[in-house]
Specification:
The complex is a heterotrimer of chains A (365), B (392) and C (254). Chain A is mainly α and 365 residues long. Chain A has 14 helices and no strands. Chain A has helices spanning 18-26, 31-57, 76-88, 96-110, 121-141, 157-183, 188-203, 206-215, 217-220, 229-254, 258-266, 271-301, 313-321, 330-363. In chain B, strand 6 and strand 7 form a beta hairpin. Classes of the chains: A mainly alpha (365), B alpha+beta (392), C alpha/beta (254). Chains A and B meet through helix 2, helix 7, helix 8, helix 9 and helix 12 of A and helix 2, helix 4, helix 5, helix 11 and helix 12 of B. Chain C: It comes from Pseudomonas farsensis.
Chain lengths: 365, 392, 254
Amino acid sequence: MNAHVFKPDMPPPVKTVGVLAWMRANLFSSWVNTLLTLFALYLVWLIVPALVQWAFLDANWSGTTRADCTKDGACWVFVQQRFGQFMYGYYPSELRWRVDLTAWLGVIGAAPLFIRSFTRKAAYGIGYLVIYPILAYLLLHGGSFGLVQVPTSQWGGLTLTLVIATVGIAAALPLGILLALGRRSRMPVIKAVSVTFIEFWRGIPLITVLFMSSVMLPLFMPEGMSFDKLLRAMIFVILFQSAYIAEVVRGGMQAIPKGQYEAAAAMGLGYWRAMALVILPQALKLVIPGIVNTFIALFKDTSLVIIIGLFDLLNSVRQATADPAWLGMATEGYVFAALVYWVFCFSMSRYSMHLERKLDTGHKR
Amino acid sequence: MQNQIGARKGLSLSDPRVRAWLFQILTVVAVIALGWYLIHNTQTNMQHRGITSGFDFLERSAGFGIAQHLIDYTEADSYARVLLVGLLNTLLASVIGIVIATLLGFVVGVARLSSNWVISKLATIYVETFRNIPPLLQILFWYFAVFTALPGPRGSINIEDLFFISSRGVNMPGASMAAGFWPFIVALVLAVLAIVLMVRRANKRFDETGQPFHKFWAGLALLLVIPTCSVLLFGNPLQWEVPQLKGFNFVGGWVLIPEFMALTLALSIYTAAFIAEIVRSGIKSVSHGQTEAARSLGLREGPTLRKVIIPQAMRVIIPPLTSQYLNLTKNSSLAAVIGYPELVSLFAGTVLNQTGQSVEVMGITMAVYLTISISISLLMNWYNKRIALIER
Amino acid sequence: MSEAIKQPVGAEGIIQMQGVNKWYGQFHVLKDINLDVRQGERIVLCGPSGSGKSTTIRCLNRLEEHQQGRIVVDGVELTNDLKQIEAIRREVGMVFQHFNLFPHLTILENCTLAPMWVRKMPRRKAEEIAMHFLERVRIPEQAHKFPGQLSGGQQQRVAIARALCMKPKIMLFDEPTSALDPEMVKEVLDTMVSLAEDGMTMLCVTHEMGFARTVANRVIFMDKGEIVEQAAPDDFFDRPRSDRTRLFLSQILH
């Protein structure tokens, strides 16, 4: 019997590792690939230097009027001058601290939800969802506790965008869950009503929904009852959004194995208890990424309120670019707005991807 | 039956079936009550405001002009015609947007999977940039920062005296029927028939003898030769009219208005980012084992893609792709903001303002979109059932 | 038992591997592999998981690229030249652990795809050949079903028939029975035995030691990326030379 002696591990040959080998494998593996690489590099060379030149090197950074923009590049002076309007709309400047405070409260209040060691997330989350909107409304709208009232017609900019998007998603969530339950119900009438509702809202563009809010809602209400424009838009955004949330939640409920339903029934839980204690907690955890994605879609869609004359971020920018004192600033304005939207959407989509990956490992067998 | 069971068990609220019935009846009552309440309010409101109801207004003359119409339209035409013009403009923008978005999306999606690092990174940057910016913002950008910021017609960018790019859009030569038009169409039909026959023969020959036939080149030859003969015999099928600068604008020829270009470009670029992701995940969903099996059988790159990977990826790609197409169609309504004369801006905007008949106008508008959505999703369900992999 | 198959073994080497080394990144997966396979030889590769046995046979039809050494298959050297790789793949059939049948094609279409597109065979001829081999693996009646409708054992037999339709000179088996339910292993092994009886050159990665004893001319034991021992099955199982082989055998043959 021989004792087998294994050969030692050798390092790979130099030509297969290192920068050159990487370049050969990833950039120049064949003549087609080489051509593609050169073409792509040419594109980059065409775009990037010109962009940097315009946005940074030749850009105008300081000044107060259009006349201060003397260089060829971007006139960021415009964005600086109108920054307040882009963020707060016509919210009185001496009261803007209230908007900032609301935002900070929101961020700080939500922080515990992201702390891993915090165990009572569900209870805290529900409490937060109930208390924060009331606080935010009191702060933003004022009119009590000695705060000066700021009518919603003065709200605007990014503030309004965020208000519509967060209220839209938060209020649509419970309605969406009910609709999802309804769509999976075994009662034919409930199912039919839910399906009709969901498919109706999903079948029409948001813009017609907003049109409806401005021309139809006043007709639907009893005479003499009138709503604020923002509230009208919000009601319809919520209805619209709940249909999308319902579909996301339904997807999550379908992913829950049948055994869970059977186990809940076997324990003698009635329908509502089984849903509230067993199915929904699992399903909702599964659909958080989906809800974040819906939120991203809604965040982008809030820009449509332009059609009913609300001044969200995009409409504020559009209005500012139409100002005769700042003609020709469309590019700067829209690039800035795009950047703001992009930062929000991109970070949220990364977060949702991160969640998906986390949930994925949690559910793998 | 129900009574008998009820009699035996007693009509108790603890019986889930009784509760289900009760609950459903309550729902029906609530829905009807809500509907009645809304209708009642609407009727009283309309009476008090003196708005007539009904669809008679559709027959009335519209009295306004439309910048782009695919069918003949004058100010004297009816509101019904306006509806049709708007619908056609919506469909035009949607179809062209869908074609461009699909091409671009497939290229970018495949590029993201490329082994070439630069190409795949560029594709990733494209996707992450454009899908995170609201489509409306992109439309406004193209419209205000690009197309209407171009020089006016007098300073237009002139390409060979045929194409003129200015703030009024792209003016290009327009075609109209000439003497040889119908013979040319007949020749085209003949060429297509000949190609179909040729392909059939070639496939049959391939099945029987295994000898491939250069279908593509033969087809191209047929497609060129037969119509050319028609042109030589009967004259040109079309006559071209080149746009001329007269006064402050171009006269004659065809024009792509800036609203149309901003809308289709922005929506194509935006939707292509989503399509690219769909294509990428569709191709990735085909397991690597399939490629290995095809390779080990000696299949080359081309047949492996065409016969093994793409047919399987398409099953995953097509359902979400359709919903992107639907989204693009619905998003084309964003053009209302820049005044492209499509369904929403023409009908729910101008017509509603002129007639005040909001219920009817909104009803028709939503019915059109719902019809499009529902017919496409029915088609999708049918298609999904057809292509589902047969498992036991 | 080991006398069951007596097939003449040719003298010339149909596969030659000389000093083959392969790395995944920094990880040395194949260390100086030298292997000579003669026409008609039936070789079983065994060893613990991660020992490089699958990688070895996947190098033979370029599903994996080796970085050092020389591989010659049927007189053609494997280089980066696509023409040569294709030429080799035409002559080398492969059967995978997870079957890898094309789920969107019927059994018959699975079998005719490569003959039609690689060998440029007319459809009728390709179908005749496919039916012939489907009869050989005893499932001609399933020809118009889809892979998803068949059991695992049936699918693996179709995979064997699909590879045979290309009339390969060499067959590679990469753990063909590992993904099967126990009751289906035999039907696949029987098919492989009958293939061996016809004189096919075979390289099998498998843990079926009964199969190795009855069918193989040579058993190769690999561990940590190198060939530890190779011998005729009787010698290998009854008189292993190395301590590592003995340990492995004691672990799998209770």
